[in-house]
């Protein structure tokens, strides 16, 4: 049995993770931590894998603590930057065999949409990303959308493509955030859960790639897969695609 502790166990995603763990025959719930609990209580004597769904402000400290404790980590909390990821890599030095897995999105549909977008990017003159979420989400654009934009940009670089056409000239245009030349737009609307559209265009044609997660249960197969694979790739791994493809 895999002993799994959950940080942020009382939150929206954490509650769903706890429910999924109870339904998994090869896992058992270890510690369930809230925002006021000490993550250093998690250690190899009580936990094999820790799952973090807390907040962008707390997640880096939690991750560094778990590394120091020698516990594999599966992180679903967003808010990661290159500098933060570098801190995690540095902390993992000297911890042979330990793994930290970070997923911008655990939904299989979202991971596949990102993959399809990267495959298609070299064939289209223009590409933009629109992400749509419930208004309780604390970050914008989403980590998933930023990852999709980066994948599109890398595919375009590898294909030797130049900048996308855009004749906008006004001093303060509303064109979303630009990520490596790819515009990313964020919508926050009551009634939504988690959705992403990738729009690609050529003269006379358009391709739309869309992923919709209507309920948080859609993320649980990816979370459980990451827990089962914890330790299989030592060090820092970002993206569920590393376990799917």
From TrEMBL:
Disulfide bond in keyword set: no
GO terms for MF: 4-hydroxy-tetrahydrodipicolinate reductase
Active-site residues annotated for this sequence: 133 (proton donor/acceptor), 137 (proton donor)
Keywords: Amino-acid biosynthesis, Cytoplasm, Diaminopimelate biosynthesis, Lysine biosynthesis, NAD, NADP, Oxidoreductase
Domain Dihydrodipicolinate reductase C-terminal as annotated: residue spans: 110-242
Alphabetized Pfam families for the sequence: DapB_C, DapB_N
Dihydrodipicolinate reductase N-terminal domain mapped to chain residues: 2-106
Organism of origin: Bifidobacterium kimbladii
Presence of the UniProt keyword Cytoplasm in the record: yes
Compartments, as annotated in UniProt: Cytoplasm
PROSITE patterns associated with the record: DAPB
Assembly and binders: Homotetramer.
EC numbers on record: 1.17.1.8
Associated pathway: Amino-acid biosynthesis; L-lysine biosynthesis via DAP pathway; (S)-tetrahydrodipicolinate from L-aspartate: step 4/4
Record's function text: Catalyzes the conversion of 4-hydroxy-tetrahydrodipicolinate (HTPA) to tetrahydrodipicolinate.
Binding-site residues for (S)-2,3,4,5-tetrahydrodipicolinate, renumbered to this chain: 134, 143-144
This protein's encoding gene: dapB
Chief place where the protein resides: cytoplasm
Family: Belongs to the DapB family.
InterPro entries: DapB_C, DapB_N, DapB_N_CS, DHDPR_bac, NAD(P)-bd_dom_sf
Protein name, UniProt field: 4-hydroxy-tetrahydrodipicolinate reductase
Reactions accelerated catalytically: (S)-2,3,4,5-tetrahydrodipicolinate + NADP(+) + H2O = (2S,4S)-4-hydroxy-2,3,4,5-tetrahydrodipicolinate + NADPH + H(+); (S)-2,3,4,5-tetrahydrodipicolinate + NAD(+) + H2O = (2S,4S)-4-hydroxy-2,3,4,5-tetrahydrodipicolinate + NADH + H(+)
Residues at which NAD(+) binds: 8-13, 37, 76-78, 103-106
Domain of life per record: Bacteria
């Amino acid at each position: 049995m895999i002993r799994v502790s959950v940080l942020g166990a009382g939150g929206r995603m954490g509650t769903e993770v706890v429910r999924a763990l109870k339904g998994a025959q090869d896992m058992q719930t270890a510690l369930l931590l809230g925002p006021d609990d000490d993550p250093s209580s998690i250690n190899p004597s009580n936990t094999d894998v820790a799952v973090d769904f807390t907040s962008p402000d707390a997640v880096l400290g939690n991750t560094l603590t778990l590394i120091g404790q020698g516990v594999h980590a599966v992180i679903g909390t967003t808010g990661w930057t290159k500098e933060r990821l570098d801190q995690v890599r540095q902390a993992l030095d000297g911890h042979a065999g330990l793994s930290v897995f970070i997923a911008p999105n655990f939904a299989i549909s979202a991971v596949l949409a990102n993959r399809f977008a990267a495959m298609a990017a070299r064939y289209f003159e223009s590409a933009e990303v629109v992400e749509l979420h419930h208004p309780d989400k604390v970050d914008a654009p989403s980590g998933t959308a930023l990852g999709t934009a980066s994948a599109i940009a890398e595919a375009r670089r590898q294909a030797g493509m130049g900048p996308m056409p855009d004749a906008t000239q006004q001093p303060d245009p509303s064109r979303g955030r630009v990520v490596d030349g790819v515009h990313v737009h964020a919508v926050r609307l009551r009634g939504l859960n988690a959705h992403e559209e990738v729009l690609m265009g050529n003269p006379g044609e358009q391709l739309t790639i869309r992923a919709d997660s209507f309920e948080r249960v859609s993320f649980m197969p990816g979370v459980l897969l990451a827990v089962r694979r914890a330790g299989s790739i030592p060090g820092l791994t970002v993206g569920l695609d590393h376990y799917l493809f």
